[in-house]
Specification:
With 457 residues, the chain is mainly alpha-helical. It has a single domain (3-456), classed as Hydantoin permease. It has 19 helices and no strands. The protein has helices at 3-7, 18-30, 33-45, 49-77, 81-91, 99-131, 144-156, 158-177, 180-209, 212-220, 229-242, 249-254, 263-291, 301-313, 317-351, 355-375, 390-417, 420-427, 434-456. Helix 3 packs antiparallel against helix 11 and helix 9 (180-209) runs parallel beside helix 13 (263-291). It is globular and about 70 Å long. It starts with a helix and ends with a helix. The structure holds 4-fluoro-L-phenylalanine. Residues 29-30, 32-35, 109, 112, 241-242, 244, 247, 249, 335, 338-339 line the site of 4-fluoro-L-phenylalanine (PFF).
Length: 457
């Protein structure tokens, strides 16, 4: 038995069928509300092309190397994030306290899911409303004030938020509880291709019905005068979030990756798909925004206030509107599954729990946690962290604080604690990339994270 096999978890988890399935699952995790809801509005708020350029640089300079690191940590141990750090620190004779990096990653994914399901619930609600023709057949011409009031009404209703987010959460539960092979593998294999086809169709529709060239210019002609330090930081933070880094998800998915697949190529494929989807989402949304004389800077409401208004006024708006919100729902679903998996895998391996019980426990506790986020839009208006609502505070705490800590610690762990032979073993035949990888882990990733921390203070 090799050293790596001896150090692996006793109950070996199942392995994804082939490299493509892993790419689908990992891209399913990466492609989510971050790409379709958040990316277009942060590009809009931060001035367009120059921001996109900085974002692409972040993905390449440290996003891809960190993604390789996380997949590699998982595959080398075939364990959940907590045990992965524990086993590897033991093998490299480093402090066992590194396990808390994996632990914090699991906590991060759990907390993100508790508010992610609320936004996913909005998508579900808007899908139902658009399918039923509520927007398009209202009889009168809608204004932005009407769709704004509608969105405010959604936020003001605790019951609606709870029903929508719980429905989403139960769907995630069903997939995760069915297991890696029967649940996650089967669902991503049809959801991801359908998502991409739908997105391309929407972009074509939008190019024909909107101002494509203006949108293209907005996204791809950089105007550096619009770039601020704050926008650079938003780009750094978003690159962690969009690639599902620093949250235990990619370590956990890596644990199910087969030994022969190349980690470098796979990480590049995942980051490539994620970036293409984000840019295509921009190309699907901005032509319509410009054609209807709306502002690209309207923030989180871009999707739920501006788009319903546009779909109401367009030919086949009901069909395309419904397709759009369904697309967001599917994207959120594959990410939601990857956000639940780290906790479930940890419960299974740490406490020898059955998958069904682990998924059930996680779902019930998340249901309770998500109430706090849902209530913070209506009946609970307490300001929680630095004057933010619970929802905003949790978003800030996970995406800006926890993810930063986990990303930095993961980079330092791989850069300074792991021995050359361990890296060799992690990357197998791809050992030529080790010097570049180590350089990124030791210097590039910490420099970017350090910049974030410095600017935050
Ligand atoms: N990458 C997902 C998105 O862009 O929506 C969000 C996410 C999924 C973050 C899984 C973290 C994670 F572990």
């Amino acid at each position: 038995m090799s050293q790596s096999e001896a150090g692996r978890a006793t109950r070996e988890p199942p392995i994804w069928k082939g490299r493509i399935t892993f790419v689908m699952a990992a891209a399913g995790s990466a492609v989510g509300l971050g790409n379709i809801w958040k990316f277009p509005y942060i590009v809009g708020e931060n001035g367009g092309g120059a921001f996109v350029l900085v974002y692409l640089a972040c993905i390449l300079l440290f996003g891809v190397p960190l993604l390789m690191a996380e997949i590699g940590l998982g595959r080398a141990t075939r364990a959940n994030a907590f045990s992965a750090f524990k086993q590897l620190s033991a093998r490299s004779k480093a402090s066992s306290q590194w396990k808390w990096v994996g632990g914090l990653g699991i906590v991060t994914s759990y907390l993100i899911l508790s508010f992610y399901i609320v936004v996913a619930g909005w998508c579900l609600y808007y899908f139902v409303v658009t399918v039923s023709g509520d927007f398009t057949q209202s009889g009168q011409t809608l204004t932005q004030a009407d769709t704004g009031a509608r969105f405010d009404g959604v936020l003001a209703s605790p019951v609606l938020l709870i029903v929508a987010s719980t429905t989403f959460l139960l769907t995630v539960f069903l997939i995760v509880a069915s297991g890696i092979k029967n649940g996650i593998e089967k669902s991503v294999n049809w959801m991801m291709p359908s998502l991409m086809v739908m997105l391309v169709l929407l972009a074509i529709y939008s190019a024909q019905n909107g101002m494509f060239m203006k949108a293209f210019d907005f996204l791809f002609s950089p105007d550096f005068s619009k770039l601020t330090l704050e926008s650079v930081l938003i780009a750094v933070g978003h690159s962690f979030f969009t690639l599902s880094l620093a949250s235990g998800s990619m370590v956990t998915y890596g644990a199910y990756m087969n030994d022969s697949a190349s980690i470098g190529k796979t990480a590049l494929a995942v980051a490539g798909i994620d970036t293409m989807v984000a840019l295509t989402a921009g190309l699907a949304i901005f032509p319509l925004i410009f054609a209807h004389g709306l502002e690209p800077t309207s923030g989180p409401g871009l999707m739920f206030i501006s788009l319903p208004l546009i779909f109401e006024q367009m030919p086949f708006g009901q069909i395309f509107g419904a397709a759009f919100f369904f697309l967001m729902f599917i994207a959120a679903l594959t990410s939601g599954v990857s956000l639940m998996e780290p906790t479930v895998a940890w419960l299974e391996q740490q406490f020898s729990m059955k998958r069904l019980s682990a998924a059930f426990l996680t779902t019930v506790s998340l249901c309770a946690m998500s109430l706090l986020s849902a209530f913070s839009f209506n009946i609970w208006d307490a300001k929680w962290l630095f004057g933010m609502s619970f929802f905003d505070g949790l978003d800030f705490l996970t995406a800006n604080v926890f993810m930063t800590i986990v990303a930095l610690a993961t980079a330092l762990f791989c850069g300074y604690c792991l021995k050359p032979e361990q890296l060799q073993q992690m990357f197998g035949h791809q050992s030529r990339i080790i010097p570049v990888f180590t350089f990124s882990m030791r210097f590039v990733a910490p420099a970017f994270v350090g910049l974030m921390v410095y600017a935050a203070f």
